[in-house]
Design brief:
The protein is mainly alpha-helical. The protein has six helices and two strands, in the order αββααααα. The protein has two domains: about 1-30, no CATH class; about 35-150, no CATH class. The protein starts with a helix and ends with a helix.
């Protein structure tokens, strides 16, 4: 904090006299939580490869991962993991569509983590239909067929 203020005062003094870059500055270290992650990212359940880190919304993947910790059905957790990783690795979906599907899966996984009385069945049905229309690529079809009956169990 004090280093930031000192650097600010040095900047102000240089601006006042019109000579820049001559006064010393403190080097402020980047906080650990602000550093860019290098290498593959593994959440508790989902593995994300280096090649897609900048392409997908890792926040949504993180939301899916957190919801998986609160889902009581291990079959549903495994199916969500498999489908999410298939979406991430799919070469046929463009970036926008991938992120839309991940956002919808994040919603479905958060609904699965809720008690049955708090779920929103009509919205779940609509989101399932949207994901089904996107899951027509060869890489997603098998994982989607495994996940679909488990998701339909959320609204019964």
């Amino acid at each position: 904090m004090l280093m930031n203020q000192t650097n600010y005062l040095m900047d102000s003094m240089e601006e006042t006299i019109g000579i820049y870059g001559v006064l010393p500055r403190y080097k402020i270290p980047t906080p650990v939580h602000m550093q860019i992650k290098q290498g593959p990212t593994t959440f508790n359940h989902i593995h994300v490869d280096n090649s897609v880190i900048g392409v997908i919304n890792t926040g949504e993947v993180g939301n899916i991962d957190v919801a998986m910790d609160n889902i009581g059905d291990p079959k549903l957790v495994q199916a969500l993991k498999d489908f999410t990783e298939a979406v991430i690795k799919d070469k046929e979906l463009d970036t926008t569509k991938k992120n839309e599907v991940l956002e919808q899966i994040a919603f479905l996984s958060s609904q699965a983590a809720l008690p049955k009385t708090e779920r929103k069945p009509s919205i779940i049905r609509t989101v399932i239909a949207n994901v089904a229309s996107a899951a027509t690529t060869a890489g997603l079809a098998q994982a989607w067929l495994a996940l679909l009956p488990l998701l339909q169990g959320l609204i019964l």
